[in-house]
Amino acid sequence: MTNSYRVTCAGESRSFPAPHAFIQGADAMGASRVFIGSAASRAFADAAELSACPFVAIELGQECLGVHTGESRGREGDNVVGFARFRLGSADPSPLVEIVRQPQTRGSAVEAARAAFEAAGLKVAVCADFPGRIIDRLIRPYLNAALRRLDEKLATAADLDKTLCLGLGYPEGPISLLERTGLAEHHDVTLALYRQLGQEAYMPARTAQVAKARQLTGLGCDKGLT
Amino acid sequence: MNEIRTIGIAGAGTMGAGISIVCARAGYRTRVFDLNAQALERARGQTEAFLRKSVERGKLAPEKLPKIMKQWEGTTRLEDFADCDLVIEAVFESLPVKHELFMKLDTICPSHALFASNTSTISITEIAGGSGRADRFVGMHFCLPAQLMKLVEMSPGLNTSGETFDRAWALCEALGQRPVKTQDTPGFVLNYFLIPFNNDAIRLVEQGVAEPADIDLAIKTAMGYAMGPMELLDLVGMDTQKLLCDAMHGVTHEPRAACPSLVRRMIAAGWLGKKSGRGLLRYDDNRMFGA
Known about the structure:
The complex is a heterodimer. By secondary structure, chain A is an alpha/beta fold.
């Protein structure tokens, strides 16, 4: 069975900012539909005859899929999935695609979307429709804690990174990672999660707030924490 | 100054077994104590299997294997630590249990012997306070799996002498490890981050955000981590994770360090992790990591 899909590009896509096999593999007559870009929501809302598609995928930002599809007492879901290719700040997108499903999303739609992404060389993790999905939900409190630990002067940035890399086999320490990918973006993501989840662990760390303030005032983003 | 030749490891669990490999492999006479003879037998078997695999992978000369295993002695009698120059404690995270062990060791071991704790959450100063030799006590926190990970968090207690710390540091380097000095604060550096991080991952499962296998795949793919939190938790063991949480949360009151209810239910169900064949993931063997 072919798993053809048609891609509608609506604005700049964080998942696919550059040519990629997934986009190149699209078919203008494809049975399934994929909406990417910052205006994917509008393009999805304007599209007709989606109910017969094996799957419909909408690129998500920080929002839940329910923002696009609506929710209904926890019984929502049909052939529509959300997706985002994980990307930390200004770094290139990772090979990970998080597919978001709702409680009643058809298993066949999830599997068809998974097959399409995997055929393009991407790796897929499936999650329910919660803020932050898997990765942001897990790593943002960790990155915040690293910034706070640094503020408390309990370790130098270099020792902190070294300990976590050597002890846990992480390829890069949290401070170096934030310096490379952008503290202001970390601020934006954590603030959005803090508003949605209401948990203190997501409240942007002081250092990230300073970086964001400097960005807003046009003073540039200080990346160096060491 | 007495040279360290014989090292005692108290506790033949996952950490104790891993540390014993590090010591024996570095050429030290290594005694492993556990009250449970089966645990000792299992640790010895895992040690041999790990070293055999190292030989197969060309990381260990074949003739060294029997020599290393000859250095490795298991015992159920604490009195057999009477000639140890250093004892590294790797029993479970309970201050009274550690105090009881060290008080006994203080009457058995020679006065020059150093005591070290592999604790990952309890204050070194507090453990040392009940050891009878707080000046010769140091924190040496190896990372899981100890036989593969090079980092050792070295923490002096308030009463640790400079000479003790220097000797322990030098030994650590002689073992082929990479020591990093950390403060005697809850969780030091690693567990300050790791315990809440792993709890957050468990809560994603509890809340139905994602399946354990998807969480591991996502973290490994997006962040390049060698192990996902689910694999790591299963290796640590749910019983140990609960002890770690209780020890850390008890001191810090950090909400993310509180033991998730799923951990308690899994312990009640016997889903302890890799060692019981089922944890957050399922397993069909109990081989040591890397074996």
